[in-house]
Amino acid sequence: MTTLTSEKPLVRLLRFPLVWLVIGLVAVGAASLFVGAGTVPALLCTVLALVAYWVVMRFVAGRAVPELAARHAGRDLLIGGGIGAGFLVISVGLIALLGGYRFTFDGAAGLSALPELIAVAIGGAVTEELLFRGLFQQAIEKLGGSRIALAATAVLFGVVHGANPGATVWSSIAIAVEAGGLMGAAFLWRRSLWLVIGLHASWNGIEQAIGIPVSGHVDPGLAITTVDGPALLTGGAFGLEASLVPVLVSVVISVGMLVAAHRRGRIVPRPSRRR
What angle do CA 80, 192, 131 make, to 5 degrees? Predict the structure, then answer.
């Protein structure tokens, strides 16, 4: 009896959202250290990050993990992948129609880079979504509701990407809206990390495959993109994320997802203060 009683304060402490948030950030972050180091490290880090997240949520936060339920994983990955691909096709297509992008296939060199491209896109999407939508957004939601959590996560996502090569104040704002806002809204809509992982992976993977820098990072792809026009249209050296076009496209998609989330009762209100 004494042992159980003495453990209760520790259990309460561990289950406070900011505590399991920090523990989760450390665990998932450590598991994903080498996600960009090649095909095998990326796949290994992906598995380790998923396990680390599940362990923290089950045994530290003391909650179930429906956002990673295996039952609908395949379906949600496909839905998210389709949304990400559609977002890229629309955004890139509009810029190309306005004369901002021209594409040249890179032949065998591009094909040889494909396995690593896929592995790193998946690994990066898994680890970032576990950190931002899985841990940060859900922890802040427990304390301040869905709206504050969505805004805070989007801002943090933009700030973190401000450390990328060629980043500017505008690119950080754009990423906060188009990526942080879109993926945060997607999570609220389906409450599935598989969906936002699919969205994120297809976005980054397709963007790299067609030769556009991914948030300032230039890596081999299947094509080479020639950029022509103002940076506000093309994103310049930073890539698509710094273009105004995907910002506008993402806002339209995000609003639709948030409306759907509200109709499904998945928007958590801000907790009322006790008087």
Answer: 95
| Cβ contact 184:153 at 8 Å | yes
- Token pair in block for residue 132: 């931002």
In a domain, 168, yes or no: yes
Q: Which residues of 133-154 are buried (b: 16+ CB within 10 A; e: fewer)?
A: bbbbbbbbbbebebeebbbbbb
What mean pLDDT do residues 241-270 have?
A: 96
Residue span of the structural domain in which 242 resides: 71-263
pLDDT at 73 over 70: yes
Nearest to 132 by CA among 46, 228, 25: 25
Q: Tell me the pLDDT band of 113, cut-offs 50, 70 and 90.
A: confident
* 27 part of a folded domain: no
Residue at token pair 């990423």:
175
DSSP one-letter string for 21-47: HHHHHHHHHHHTTTTTS-HHHHHHHHH
Per-residue pLDDT band at 65 (split at 50, 70, 90): very high
Number of domains in the chain: 1
Instruction: Say if 174 falls within a structural domain.
Output: yes
Residue with tokens 């805004």: 151
Half-sphere exposure of 115 (CA within 13 A, CB side): 7
